[in-house]
Amino acid sequence: IMDGNARKLGNGEPLKRALTQYKTYADRLHIFDSSRNINYIAATVQKYIAKTGKKPIIVIDYIQLLKTDNSKASAIDVIQETIAVLSKLKSDYNLAIVAIVAFNRDSNKDGKKVNLDSGRDTSDLEYSADTYIALNFTEWENDKPEHSREELMNLPERAMTAKILKKRMGNPYGKIDMIYRPHINHFEELENKRIGDLTYMES
């Protein structure tokens, strides 16, 4: 869509299917990008609940971009306050909150597995989160780092693995192998599907 070639892909059929699916929930989707202040976001959520009586699912993309009212706060202080504000929202309104986290520099190195320490300045979040799911290249998670990040990022289809690193309730471990198609921003769960010269089996 962004490069103007969406209508050329598959004679426009994938775009038509995407629009049809999007229309089923578009009226319930609210995107706010005018402010990254966590207190403004919290106030907006509270007003929405008061006005509609409905409890939204909140998605933060991504948490290190948020700011607080204190312009001099360090990155760690900002995340600590952000967690405090989101935790209060969750507790007061029983909300589901999904926060996307950026990796730290070391975890972005080629061939690195991801773990609870992979987030950037997020030690408090790792403790507070009910569930922590990490996304990484499948070959790196399988101890087969045959390609660099640059090589993998340039593939038209990327084998990815989402693994549970923490789950407060229930089984704390598990993984899902997927294929990611960046040109349509789509993940598909794998079931014994072959990508290139590697086969990824169902978990």
Main sheet: strands, sense, barrel: 4 strands, antiparallel
Secondary-structure element order, as H and E? HHEHEHEHHEEEEE
Mean pLDDT: 79
Query: Which strand order does the major sheet show?
Result: 3-4-5-6
- Segments where pLDDT lies below 50 for 5+ residues? 194-203
What fraction of the residues are assigned to beta strands by DSSP? Answer: 15-25%
| Terminal CA distance | 33 Å
Tell me the radius of gyration.
19 Å
**Envelope shape:** globular
Query: What portion of residues is helical?
Result: 25-40%
The tally of helices reads 6
What structural category do the secondary elements indicate? alpha+beta
DSSP summary, beta strand count: 8
Short description:
By secondary structure, this protein is an alpha+beta fold. It has helices at residues 13-23, 38-52, 75-93, 123-128, 138-141, 149-153, and strands at residues 58-60, 97-99, 131-137, 158-167, 174-181, 186-189, 193-195, 198-200.
Give a quick set of tags describing it.
single chain, 203 residues, alpha+beta, four-stranded antiparallel beta sheet, two-stranded parallel ribbon, 6 helices, 30% helix
Provide an overview of this structure.
This protein has 203 residues and is of the alpha+beta class. The protein has helices at 13-23, 38-52, 75-93, 123-128, 138-141, 149-153; strands at 58-60, 97-99, 131-137, 158-167, 174-181, 186-189, 193-195, 198-200. It is built from six helices and eight strands. The strands form three sheets. A four-stranded antiparallel beta sheet has the order 3-4-5-6. A two-stranded parallel ribbon has the order 1-2. Strands 7-8 form a two-stranded antiparallel ribbon. The longest helix is centred in the middle third of the chain and has 19 residues, at 75-93. The chain is globular, with a radius of gyration of 19 Å. Strand 5 and strand 6 form a beta hairpin.
